[in-house]
Amino acid sequence: MKITTALAALAAPALLTMTAAPALADDHEPVELMTTFGELNDSGGSGEAWAKVDGNEVWMKVEVQGLLDGAPHAQHIHLGGAGQCPDPNMEGTGFEGAIRTTDAIDSYGEVRVSLTGNDADTSEAAALDVANFPAVGTYTYERTFEVPDDVAAELNEGNGVVVIHGVDHNGSGEYDGDQESDLDPSLPSEATDPALCGAFQMGQMSAPGGGVETGGGSTSGLENSGLMAGGALLAVAGAGALALGQRRRDES
Ligand SMILES: [Cu+2]
């Protein structure tokens, strides 16, 4: 991905952040962010994401339902665009007008955090580290990691757009098709096209396990799929029902 522009734009703020960091780290409150995903490219998916940002340390939880099963889903925090998701009806350059990742870069910006598992690199360099992304269609991801100063500063301001990639446009049950990915020509475009998008909002944590009472929701539906070594990722049986239940409780 082209990150030079973003890096140049962020270089000056990053220096300011570094000088201000010590005081900030001592007395500031952790920032809590959340988003509900919107569907892109008729992916069939849904979900939510939560983050808690404490200095350079970020705790992140992502719940996803209904994407293509058995295929890796790259997931990132994007920064530097308009801080928004694209209109899901926008005409893209992909399969039958599908939105490809670069089509909406002005909306959500460039990859700055790769939400990998297995203690893998979380920088933009790991944006397509397909071996360390969830490889099921319904999952819960949770990880705590460090981000660079400029990314921490953005997240502390409530910026950041979470994007989950990987769409089976032609319904073949796998990533295929003639069109090459706009991010990596060795991959089909299906493997990297955006499937879910959510712009972070500041707010109270409502993630299960995120420090706020969720009303006695049961976790008995959780089951370790073993699809990823290290247990960083859980496949969730019946996650749709679980998430719906939580959302209903949150709204009541
Ligand atoms: Cu992304």
Please identify, by name, the CATH architecture.
Answer: Sandwich
Ligand catalogue: copper (II) ion
Strand content: 25-35%
Unreliable stretches, pLDDT < 50, 5 or more residues?
Answer: 1-26, 210-252
The span between the termini is 42 Å
Going by CATH, the homologous superfamily would be Superoxide dismutase, copper/zinc binding domain
- Overall radius of gyration: 18 Å
Shape: globular
CATH topology: Immunoglobulin-like
Question: How many distinct domains?
Answer: 1
What does this protein look like?
By secondary structure, the protein is of the alpha+beta class. It has a single domain, classed as Immunoglobulin-like, CATH 2.60.40. The chain has five helices and twelve strands. It has helices spanning 4-27, 105-108, 149-156, 189-192, 239-251, and strands at 31-36, 38-39, 46-54, 57-65, 75-79, 110-114, 139-146, 161-165, 194-199, 201-202, 222-223, 233-236. The strands form two sheets. The chain has a seven-stranded antiparallel sheet with strand order 10-1-3-4-7-12-11, sandwiched between helices. A five-stranded antiparallel sheet has the order 2-9-8-5-6. The longest helix has 24 residues, at 4-27. Copper (II) ion binds next to strand 5 and strand 8.
Features:
alpha+beta, five-stranded antiparallel sheet, single chain, 21% helix, 252 residues, disordered C terminus, disordered N terminus, seven-stranded antiparallel sheet, binds copper (II) ion, Immunoglobulin-like
In short:
The protein is of the alpha+beta class and 252 residues long.
